[in-house]
Amino acid sequence: MKSIIETCTNNENLNMPIMIFGWIKKTRKLGSIIFLDVYDISGFVQVFVDEKNKFYNEIYSTPKETLVSIKGTLKNRKSINNEVPSGHVEIILESFNIISLSKNTPFLIQDETDGLEEIRLKYRYLDLRRSSMQKNIILRSNLIQNIREYLHRKEMIEIETPILTKPTVEGANGYMVPLKDNLFFSLAQSPQIYKQLLMVSGFMKYFQIAKCFRDENLRLDRQPEFTQLDIELSLVNEEYIFNFVEGLLKNVFLKTIGVDLKTPFRRMNFDDAMELYGNDKPNLGYGYEIFNCTRHFENNTIFSDLISKGKVFKAILVNDFLINNTDLKKIEKFAKDNGAKSLISCVFDKKIVDGSLEGKVDDQIIKNIFDENKFKSGTLFIDFNDGFTSNKILGAIRNATIDILKIEPEARFNFVWIVNWPLFEFSKEENRYVSVHHPFTSPVEEDSGKSTKDFHEARARSYDIVLNGFEIGGGSIRITNNEIQKKVFEVLKINEDTYKKEFGFLLEAFEYGVPPHGGIAIGLDRLLMLITNSNSIRDVIAFPKSSSGTDLMMNSPSKVTK
Ligand code: ASP
């Protein structure tokens, strides 16, 4: 069966009898004439119905979204619509058949729909009839095809790994699958261990488009089950992986959406990202870097004492933007919700306009900061806190300002590799060190010899890839030395009994000739969300879970009978 657009744009069909299948999109009566738009996934065509046609009344009363077959003659149209592929033709109706009648739909099946997200998710099969959703899903299919083609050309081997896997102490976010006798599988959070074992087997170049499952706090860019492009390579270093991923993304962006990415991507140390943007996934489509302006306040008697105890003044300037009072209030509220206690915001005329330090800071100081930095216009946010907290607060202000003012980025796609991560971070909730990435990440060579006492300070051979302020992937060079792996478990407070029980097979596998290896996983849903400029990851997944992690269409999770 040919699609509507294939049939109606084939010149050989002009002035010939044709037949199409599709859903009724729109019916309008103009005097004695009816125009009908009939659509399928390829697009729509206009059907012309004359008063004399014996189906005139019946077709007019057929509800929208009914599936019909239309027989008629394909003709050139008088008034051409250049916006759509079939805008130069129409079908003069001879007869039509109702194949399947539609009830009134719960929301409008069109790009600008009146349906709230909950109702769209409940009737997802109808939501997926909207052409904007179909475009996203088709783009997803194309992207995945292009990725596969590229990787196969690079002699990568596509291997499926299990979804039912082993629950571990490090898998707090795993979904458990109960079996009988109190035994459990856990759903794979990632193919990490399997792909490393495939390197021991000698496959050398692995990839998989893998479903992963994580029971984590949900956000607009997170789903309990998601798809990642998972890669592992033997005998490589970080440089090789950066090149490999840049080559892949350059190729598939060009093929899928016609965008030629500039490579190599920027690289930034984790520490610099935190210092300059207060964030480990900075959006480099914008400037607005955080800077230290403490010295301007050193002589101020209110602050000098606290400054000598280590508190600092840090600031960002949102240049060229005079933020109006309503937006300023929104940003300040956001900053306070993020822990800001001592905040000043000032506009370019060097007057303090608002904030909790109002009245305590001399206008002259603000003028000096503007002058020293050669700022001409803009809004300056200053925060007084310990350096780490200030960075986080100003980073949050930076993101909120970009969002609230809808500031255009310098480029459409802003990639950056974040490198030189710490291997561990201290978790207050768990009262122990946890891995920043995962426990199989190798420390940098200089730090692998550190004694157990100092090992928690080790730096990692890991990297994240960030696009427009979203982490779209991460990976590392892996530990292949069992002594180092044991030291990692020790810092993580996983005792010998536990790691032997849970990861003993991995340690044993590494005793049979393991090649050095490393890899990465790229979140395809998030990548697609950014490529399609969607508001939520849910708009690029055919059947996503709702914002609270449920399936509103099937009404699950649900209770089961005994
Ligand atoms: N397995 C890791 C993840 O899913 C990625 C990697 O290290 O390759 O985040």
Polypeptide structure, described:
By secondary structure, the chain is α+β, with helices and mostly antiparallel strands. Helices cover 30% and strands 26% of the residues. It is built from 16 helices and 23 strands. A hairpin with a 5-residue loop joins strand 8 and strand 9. Helix 5 crosses helix 7 and helix 8 packs across helix 12. The longest helix is centred in the N-terminal third of the chain and has 23 residues. The two termini are 47 Å apart. The model has no long low-confidence stretch (mean pLDDT 92). Bound molecules: aspartic acid (ASP). The site of aspartic acid has 8 residues, from strand 22 and strand 23.
Give me a quick take on this structure:
By secondary structure, this protein is α+β, with helices and mostly antiparallel strands. It has helices spanning 4-8, 56-60, 117-122, 124-127, 131-153, 192-201, 238-257, 270-277, 301-308, 325-337, 363-372, 387-405, 445-448, 482-491, 496-509, 524-531; strands at residues 17-30, 33-40, 43-49, 67-76, 89-100, 157-158, 164-165, 176-178, 184-187, 205-213, 225-234, 266-269, 291-292, 312-319, 343-347, 352-355, 378-385, 415-419, 424-427, 432-435, 462-467, 470-477, 517-523. The chain contains 16 helices and 23 strands.
List the helices and strands and how they pair.
Layout: H1 4-8, E1 17-30, E2 33-40, E3 43-49, H2 56-60, E4 67-76, E5 89-100, H3 117-122, H4 124-127, H5 131-153, E6 157-158, E7 164-165, E8 176-178, E9 184-187, H6 192-201, E10 205-213, E11 225-234, H7 238-257, E12 266-269, H8 270-277, E13 291-292, H9 301-308, E14 312-319, H10 325-337, E15 343-347, E16 352-355, H11 363-372, E17 378-385, H12 387-405, E18 415-419, E19 424-427, E20 432-435, H13 445-448, E21 462-467, E22 470-477, H14 482-491, H15 496-509, E23 517-523, H16 524-531
Helix pairs in contact: 5-7, 8-12, 10-12
This protein binds aspartic acid.
